[in-house]
Design goal:
The chain is mainly α. It contains two helices and no strands. It has helices at 2-36, 42-64. The longest helix is centred in the N-terminal third of the chain and has 35 residues, at 2-36. The mean pLDDT is 89.
Length: 71
């Protein structure tokens, strides 16, 4: 019983992380759009895009190894 509960928690955790990953990737798409339409300059774009790359990297690492991040 406790093992199945733990696996369900881990599955829910990974599901939430996957949602976060998709949202961060979508933000990068909107950043591309903003740059293309000249709503933002190259400097702002590069800084924010780089930060989102770091966030995405962390999220992927957490998705691949959820046991290290969940209780």
């Amino acid at each position: 019983f406790y093992l199945s509960k733990a696996l369900m928690k881990s599955s829910n955790f990974v599901s939430k992380l996957s949602d976060c990953e998709a949202e961060a990737a979508e933000t990068q798409v909107w950043l591309d759009f903003a740059l293309e339409c000249e709503y933002v300059d190259d400097e702002f774009y590069n800084e924010i895009f780089k930060q989102y790359d770091m966030v995405l990297g962390m999220l992927v690492k957490m998705i691949v190894e959820p046991e290290k991040w969940s209780i």
